[in-house]
UniProtKB/TrEMBL annotation:
Ranges of Basic and acidic residues composition bias in the record: 8-18
Protein name: Tyrosine-type recombinase/integrase
Keyword set, alphabetical order: DNA recombination, DNA-binding
PROSITE patterns for the chain: CB (PS51900), TYR_RECOMBINASE (PS51898)
Protein origin, superkingdom: Bacteria
Cross-referenced InterPro entries: CB, DNA_brk_join_enz, Integrase-like_cat_sf, Integrase_catalytic, Integrase_recombinase_N, Tyrosine_recombinase_XerCD
Region ranges (Disordered): 1-63
Pfam families: Phage_integrase
Amino acid sequence: MINSGDRPAIDATHDRAGEPSTAVAGGMGADPRPAPETPVGATELVPAPAPPTSVTPGREPAQDPVEEAVALLPALPLDDPGDRYGLRLLTAAWLRGQRSDATRRGYYRDLGGWLDHCARTGLDPRAARRADIDDWTASMTVTVGGRARPPSAATQARRLAAVSSWYAYLQSNDVADGNPTLLVKRPTSAQIAASARKAPTLGVAETARLLDTAESRAVAKGTEAAWRDAAVTALLFYTALRVSALTGADLSDLDTEAGYRVLRYTAKGKGPDGRDYVRLDGELCRVLDAYLTVRAERRPDGVCPPGPLLVTTPHPYDRAKAGGKRLTQRDVTNILRRQATLAGLPAASRLSPHSGRRTVITTLLGNDVPLAKVQDLAGHADPRTTRGYDDTNHKLASSPVTDLTRILASHRTRTRTGTGDPT
């Protein structure tokens, strides 16, 4: 679901000792949020209270949150009363037609960048031509560390693809005469691959140190936030789940299947009803159970209320912030980076939730776990996708160069130093 409204505040996730864990920007290997060309407020698509309903003259106030979000986009004229093919209504229908919430949020954000450019340049998006798209492409930026820079090839291609999809939808409904993005030069697949920034992958020793650090800290502090952080870390590095599966999980998703403890989750690419589950083993269960036990202790009835599996904790000084809200991807990123910093990991500041997924897959493949089993855990339809996670440390460790050296060694006649003559 798309949540609209002015830039919402991300709730801090504090422990009882007052240690803040408000998230920093980042996560999943994605580029930072778009900068100047992106409309402020219209693209902060994180869970937030619903804003006032739209007030298009001649229509009842919109109840659909997608329509409410579309009403915040710039450069879209008000729909005529009774016009079922108005630009705003069609834009909402286009967004609802996407396969997942993640795709809807991404398309909404990228379309917002284009429409903001239209608003700033006084352009009616329905009259846009290729030259206008070229101007927008040339002015694209992203913000990194408070500074604007040109976007990566992957980001540029993604934004163009979103806007192209929108125009194709309008064209199919006879609202736009053409698609101005069709002949725009886009980054090649090679450029996109070269610019892609993979989430750092941890080695086995680093992963163990991270898990040990998070759990030891939880034992020492005994707070709900500390145990939650340990549970988040363990879930990331024991299950290979995507961050959306973790943040979207509810307590009711903890279940049993064939005598095993499992976590049920919504699987990517399988629609709103596409559910799957992953097995939870002893090391992870120990930390997760401890978190839920400590969390229940602050309830009068000693029971965790129904709702999200992973939640914010009460603010130590502001009673108005009682916690209990679902963690966001940003929260998870912050938790992971803080734990990695405490563990002294060199890549701590660059880690994202996707690092857990990459690390699990790479570790399993690097220790001779069959590809089919790893593919099933990762939920990949194509084994080539799983192989794509086979990161450098596994490729080096399992390189056949060592085998080649051994095979040739018995046939070589030169000395070990390479300076002797054949004997």
